[in-house]
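Complex 286.
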Amino acid sequence: MSWFIKKRQQKIAVEEKTVRVPEGLWVKCEACKELIYRAELVNTRNVCPKCGYHFRIGVEERLNDLMDPGFVELFGNLHSTDPLKFVATKPYADQLKKLRDSGYDHDAILMVEGTLKGSPVVLGVMNFDYLAASMGSVVGEKIRLGAEEALKKNCAFILVSCSGGARMQEGTLSLMQMAKTSAALARLDEAGLPFLSVLTDPTTGGVSASFAMLGDLNIAEPKALICFAGPRVIEQTIKQTLPEGFQRAEFLQQHGMVDKVVTRDQLRDFLAYCLGWMMGSAAHDQ
Ligand SMILES: [Zn+2]
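Predicted structure with zinc ion bound:
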């Protein structure tokens, strides 16, 4: 028993050490594995100065990066419930409560309306810090409502995705969101309004298998992992080594799954440029 306690204490000490040191000064790049001085990332918009890997950024930072000042939140009153009374390692209801208590109030997506370089848009940004930005009923519903709002306002719809996939805690209700979001986007398409999908690292599972890949333009950040099942799962299943860069944004662009890889410092200008010619012709048709 004393051996057990000793081991456990050692483990806790190691965990504290490994968490605290990189949090302060250094960040390890997921792509090139180099250690980067954290302050340096502020100047590079969270892009690795060594290899150009785009680190995930927060929802607020993303919105301020893309939108003109004065945007307003939509559908902020929607919150996940626990329809299946789901319990895995911990009860889903407890996870939701803990997140709300820590200030996460938008589920895994924040939807806003406003303008992007003067063009009116409805824009949603997924938040990976909230249950790996998994798509449950609220995420799906906000996307449907966002698409309908764009339809009402006759403006473009933009989603900035990152996600671990469907939210397992909501079971089949999560899977239904794939069909629901796709149907909402189809209505935008029928109305001739653009949907621009921005894929960031990582966009996977049911999200990549539904709305994220349905953009009139699918735009990705450099080196973003975009896939349904991850490379390790595929390698274990087919027992073959995958090609270099498999399932990364550049590989997908080469194979026609992504239209353009755009760096973070160019993204706002690129979206505004697309909206210019896409909405310009839509306005002309009316
Ligand atoms: Zn790097």
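The pocket of zinc ion is lined by residues 29, 31-32, 34, 48, 50-51, 53 (CB under 6 Å).
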